[in-house]
Amino acid sequence: MSEESLNVLTDLIAKAKTAGADAADAIIADGESTSVTYRLGELEQLEHSEGGDIGLRVLVGKKQAIVSSSDRSPEALSELVDRAVAMAKTVPDDELLGLADPDQLATDLIDLDMCDPDDISTETLIEAARTCEEAARAIKGVTNSEGAQANWGRTRVAIAASNGFQRAYESTGGSFSASVLAGDVETGMETDYEYTSAVYAEDFKTPEEVGRAAGERAVRKLGARKIKSGKFPIVFESRAASGMVSHFLGAINGAAVARGTTFLKDHMEKAVFSDGIIVSEDPHRARGLRSKPCDAEGLANMRRNLIDNGVLTTWVLDLRSARKLGLTPTGHASRGPSSPPSPSVTNVVLEAGSQTPEELIAEIQTGLFVTDAFGQGVNGVTGDYSRGVGGFWIENGEISYPVNEITIASNLKEMFMSVTPANDLDLSRGIDSPTIRIDGMSVAGS
């Protein structure tokens, strides 16, 4: 299949150049997936999908156009070429466009073990979803269910370009999840969820573990109180802390840096986090959820510290953003059939510290343990941060009782400089963080 797809792309690129394109690249993305939803003891939804798209990008001088289609008949592909070339001739010039030079292309691509040879049957997925929900509903205090899901898919991608780049790969992945409610209308209701994701089926947590954790998380929120406003130290549970890492990654994305729309635009080789903090990226992690042996433009990628002992070391760059900034590309391009390359990270980790979460909490007289963050109150230009959160009040160094209807606020520059990581790092999301502590944030309660 991979050789056949690459042949289709090679022919498509040749036709594009014959039709007037100076350069071109193309991508095929095929896949099939099965998704199961189980709710209140009944199979609620079963979906199986198969499909794929082919996308062609042509460059005519410094003009670019992208056209995609699900039809791969000879007639459709000829029309795809004609449309792409005609469109490219009508758009304005962009001096930053261009494929990688042949000597920039990666060689000796690493096998990252991203494809489980075995698929999960529909029957197994149904049983996993049933077991997951059953385990969640068995937790005392759980009163309703939003359902449990199990899904599994296989994706095949082929990319080729007129500069000689060719790559084809197959990957698998899926997840189990459950979301349930605890309590009742009179005493108050709370909801929570849990999930597991993996490239290989054998690396999933068990459905029982996932369901039980979802039920326990929902129940422990019951009886939530409001708290008074003030400035307090805040501990972010690892799941909420990974969102903090995502805010940092958005701020060093080359597209934002090139536009000047990030609060970190002047912080290259300056301290962004406190001394000792490391944020690393490893695109070559075997079975990693976001792993890739090279980027979508054919450039080599590598393990690196984005933050090294608190200091910002690099932007996240594709070819275009690197040219805009006059820098060397970092191998971070990602793309789909209907979109041009853009900067994107792979497996990113805020490295663990030495203290346990309990030790971080034990040092706090009064503060907040955040398990959930809501809303989009983050300004990428200024770094201002304001979000609704839920979690637990910390009193005398211990988690005391659940709290809700809270807004926390600060600025990401100040927050990053105050991060203290715990030692409970779990590589389960692709962008991962241990529990972290941030001191001195504003908390708005009652």
Describe this structure in words.
It is a single chain. It is built from nine helices and 19 strands. It is of the alpha+beta class and 446 residues long. Strands 3-2-1-4-5-6 form a six-stranded antiparallel β-sheet. A hairpin with a 2-residue loop joins β1 and β2.
- Overall radius of gyration: 24 Å
β content, as a range?
Answer: 35-45%
Largest sheet: 6 strands, antiparallel
DSSP strand tally: 19
What's the quick description here?
By secondary structure, the chain is an alpha+beta fold. The chain is 22% helix and 37% strand.
List keywords for this structure.
446 residues; PmbA/TldD fold; six-stranded antiparallel beta sheet; five-stranded mixed β-barrel; 22% helix; globular
How is the secondary structure organized here?
Layout: H1 2-18, E1 23-39, E2 42-60, E3 63-69, H2 74-88, H3 122-137, E4 142-161, E5 166-184, E6 188-198, H4 207-219, E7 230-236, H5 238-251, H6 254-259, E8 279-281, E9 304-308, E10 311-312, H7 319-325, E11 333-334, E12 342-343, E13 348-350, H8 357-362, E14 366-374, E15 384-395, E16 398-411, H9 412-417, E17 420-421, E18 431-432, E19 436-444
Helix pairs in contact: 1-2, 3-4
